[in-house]
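Supplementary notes for students who missed Thursday's class. We covered one full example, reproduced here. Read the sequence, then the structure, then the short commentary at the end.
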Amino acid sequence: MKQFPHPYSDKSVIGQALALAHATFYDALPSNVQHKAPTAPAALPSKRTPLSGTLQRWTEALDNWFYRQRVKDREAYLAQSSDIFDVERRMRELERHPYY
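Structure (token representation):
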């Protein structure tokens, strides 16, 4: 990256702000397109095999099943409360200690 000459000292606040702005926006300026560094692709190509897709679906299904079971257990625990104050106390307890 080319250094940007400015009249402010590098140790001053304005000089630091100018240096930071220059470092941030140098590649974005149309006049500096030829100096732009190469960028990495947004996503790597997928090396997905049929087995990995099946395995991923199975693990997602298992994860969803465990989540539904946990929600079901929490709802059953909250349903055992005697009044609204007990419900609120149990909800606070679950927020503080999610795995009872």
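Commentary. Residues 52 and 73 are 31 Å apart (CA to CA). The chain has two domains: 1-39, 50-96. If anything here is unclear, bring it to office hours.
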